[in-house]
Amino acid sequence: MCYGRGMREVGLREMRQNASDLVRRAQGGERVTITVAGRPAAVLGPVSPRTWREWDDLAGAFDQPTDPGWADDRDLLDDAVTDPWVER
Question: How many domains does the chain have?
Answer without folding.
Answer: 1
